[in-house]
From TrEMBL, chain A:
One of its GO terms (cellular component) is glycosylphosphatidylinositol-N-acetylglucosaminyltransferase (GPI-GnT) complex. Belongs to the PIGH family. This is Phosphatidylinositol N-acetylglucosaminyltransferase subunit H conserved domain-containing protein. Residues 89-158 form the Phosphatidylinositol N-acetylglucosaminyltransferase subunit H conserved domain. It comes from Electrophorus electricus. Pfam families: PIG-H (PF10181).
From TrEMBL, chain B:
InterPro entries: PigQ/GPI1. PANTHER family: PHOSPHATIDYLINOSITOL N-ACETYLGLUCOSAMINYLTRANSFERASE SUBUNIT Q, PHOSPHATIDYLINOSITOL N-ACETYLGLUCOSAMINYLTRANSFERASE SUBUNIT Q-RELATED. This is Phosphatidylinositol glycan anchor biosynthesis, class Q. GO terms for cellular component: endoplasmic reticulum; membrane. Pfam families: Gpi1. It comes from Electrophorus electricus. The keyword Transmembrane applies. One of its GO terms (biological process) is GPI anchor biosynthetic process. The chain crosses the membrane at residues 273-292, 304-323, 335-361, 367-390, 411-434, 440-463.
Amino acid sequence: MAEKNEFTDINGKAILLDCQNYSSFCREFTVSSPKVSLCKVIVCTCSVWLFAYAVFFVTENTAVLSSAIIITLVGMMMHIHLVKVEHETLLIIGSLGVQLSTSYASGRESTTFIEMSRIKDIVINEAVYMQSIIYYLCILIKDSGDPNGIASVVPLFQSSKPRLNCLVQVYKSCQAIIAQTR
Amino acid sequence: MVLKIFFPTCCNTADSGLLIGRWIPGQDSAVVLAVIHYPFIPGQVKKYLSETQNQSQVDLAVLGSWSLPKDGQEGMDSFLKDLSTIFPNSRWLQLSREIGKRGFACQVVHNRITPPDPAQGGTDKKDQIIFIHYDQRKVMLSQLHPIHEESPGEESSELRAVFHTVAQSGPLFLLDRYDEGPLKLTHWQSEGREASIVVELSKQASVPLCIVLTWLVSLWQCGIRILNIWPVQFISSKMSTCVQTAYRTNHFQTVFSTKKATSHMEFMRKANIFVSFLVDMSLGLLLVSWLYRENHISQLANTLVKLSLYRFFLYHIHLWISYIRLMSPFIEMILWYVGLSACLGLTFALSVLSDIVALLTFHIYCFYVYGARLYCLKVYGLSSLWRLFCGKKWNVLRQRVDSCSYDLDQLFIGTLLFTILLFLLPTTALYYLVFTLLRLVVVMFQGVIHLAIDLINSFPLFAMGLRLCRSYRLAEGVKFRVLCEEPGTPLHLMMEINPLKCSSVLQRYRTPTYSCYPRDSWVDLCKKLFMGELIYPWKHKTTKTD
């Protein structure tokens, strides 16, 4: 069973939340960011090339033009491979663990899996971000030495930054599964 | 409670039989390792299990039954149910699968040895089951990071327990369904035995070879013990060639020892050193082949002679010039023989180059020391006499500046000396500046060479190669994928190995070296230069010596 909902992120851009219910204790949440906009790409490349042409006009050196082309290509490839996030996925399997996966625009996927025995809780936290206060969902990791302490905090959906209404939906499902299987 | 069953992908199409595996203590999960097919005799199964348990230290048990009915095998189901009485266990799994369907069906039969816990209400809740499919061969060969060296008695991590169980169950995988014997098993070896004649032969040949090489290395070590006698030790600790030789000899001792590596880290270190040494030798041979072609040696000799002569320096000692003029016909021959040492490795050639540069620029070092000492004396003298000029004095006891009343003659002489030193300052400062700049150029060049040597010494080539070609061997964790399910069947997940990141590989498997790194920060360096103190910017990290 899949459900798609539209929400907005903290900057006002539209994001998509997709919930897949594989079983009563296994759910997958995918938050998709908006794709690379053609306008931005055209504006960036045109400005770089105009600047390169101006420099060429002054210096009469053709290496400037070819280096501008190479810089644009390399810059675009690095941007879609390292920076542009397509979707972020949270797969929660009761009594096994939580898997976080980020997939980039070039197809690269980076995955981490956190076992249930290491997870203390999944909570919504507040943070001061620039001039505003935002909510974010995070996983609290148990400390091996101190049974009541927290070793670290793993924030979720960092690139898409959904707002509170989206986070609450994910939070409720996760808490239901954790309570059921603990 | 959710019951997790780790099922190997190689047994997906196995014939009906018994499931052999291990219940993970403390968790509600089981790892299936192999399937024993019909027909079998239960007594022989029990005997085989206890034998394998003794060999592998893994507590194996019969987990349940597996049923994949093929033509002519109807009626197996009732037979399978009766087996739970022969192999007593607290839980008995009955897995079954139909050809054409992808999902498994599972029934758990609880044999209550102890009475049910009244706190739970006395009734068995319906168990929810997850099947996690794993690739047995990859999990067996993989090493989960971060590595915990101590033997796991109580594994708090379920995944670590699974990896450990599969890795230790080597003796179970020796018997196969194609072998002639009382028992027929299916596991990862059934897909086709993996072995290489070359690997096996080299394993057999390596033992006598290692013995011979260890003996040679011990002879060599007795030889270079002469370098530890006091006067020679001072020079040999300064020359990078001797340091590199000692470092490599240590490595040879580790690699050629006849003791098998017990832990993963030891094995990786041995392999890294071996591969790094091979690559070093081949690069050195390449360098030698390039150098000795097309007369490059004589070109190099000419350049060195030209550089060491009065190119930049007008204040050359006459003796040095005549010495070089005397040596110049022989330099080419010396270089020819020294260049042959590059056969021992590129690092060796680089350290020889660094030592040659140090020897040829020894006069620059001498001039730098003279200029620095003069300048330093001048600066101290000036600062002390300036304090006298102001009527103050440096209190050595209190380490501070105090006021002091001087006599008239002290003041007169002090002022005179101050004026003399002040007017001589520009000349001395200029000499100091020139020689310091030259010395810094030489030091930077040597630093670059040492960085290159350090890089070749410490880069873990074997670990990187393993990460690129067999990425499942070094695991950072696992990832799960949900396999498409049919309604009514339990959840099926595919467990894949998440390989270690390249930066983590570099960090964990770096061979420790006698690396040289900057001793002072930039601010300290500038301060020392200004005050005229002698600078030795690169500090060698000394290894433990006995």
